[in-house]
Design brief:
By secondary structure, the chain is mainly alpha-helical. The protein contains nine helices and no strands. Helix 2 packs antiparallel against helix 9, helix 3 runs antiparallel to helix 4 and helix 8 runs antiparallel to helix 9.
Length: 210
Amino acid sequence: MKLLYDLFPVILFFVTYHQADALVNTPLGQLVDTSQSEVIVATIFATSIAIIASFIQVSGYWLKHRRFEKMHLISLGLISILGGITIFFGNPAFIQWKPTLLNWIFAAVFLGSQYIGEKSLVQRMMGGQIQLPEPVWARLNLSWVIFFILSGAANLYVAFYYGLDQDEKTRMDFWVNFKLFGLMGLTFVFVIAQGFYLAKYMSDKTEEDS
């Protein structure tokens, strides 16, 4: 459930973008210049809904836990700034940068945690569940840094370099789909691969305990 909650704005962006035609004749449609291209209109609708969803996400989390989650706040800040610029200028390129900047911020935070403080961020998050040698924690943390860097780069490639011979709508449709399913799929594959990597050390620990 937490994963769905974390992806709440992304999912609404995806749904709104692909259902933008149905919003043109609604009160929301009166706020958008529908004389613009189909891609720009759909992106403005989707971005507006995603910004609202991000505010709801942050507020809902605070009401339930009486604290904010940093990931939600960073995402809200980025989508508010880049999304606002996208809506103002009618240029999807700004919102397309958002997943990359978010991933690269995470990469910087994970990398910084490896040199600041006694434990890396991965060890702080997972140390209560499993016990690992210090070098393994360092490699695990670094693997997340590399993953976030590559995910950000993959988003840039799909957004600005993939399918340059295709029309604007086809390219934008592909990016919107990749933003939800592609990046989420990459994350699942990485987490599964990490699970196999950790299984070796957990098996060794079980043998030692026996």
